[in-house]
Amino acid sequence: MKSAYELAMERLAGTGPVISLTDEQRAEIGAIDDRFRAKIAERELFLNDLIAKAVGSGNYHEVPDLKTQLAREIASLRADGETAKDKVRS
What we know:
The protein is an all-alpha fold. It has one domain (20-89). The protein is 79% helix and 0% strand. It is elongated.
């Protein structure tokens, strides 16, 4: 009897081409991941600090806007990272 994982892998194998990456491509994708994780962490630190300052000074009306900005910037950076990795893959 096959596990759920094995069944899922069989289904996925039939849906598209398997792309094998060279060691150089894997290293480059890893570097891209590291670079974008660092950028995301930097923006999180900066905006979370602004959120804390807004709360500390009683400017609660700024908090939702800052949280929205944080979510938007993280999504944008993740999309940029995926675009960069797609370029390496192709």
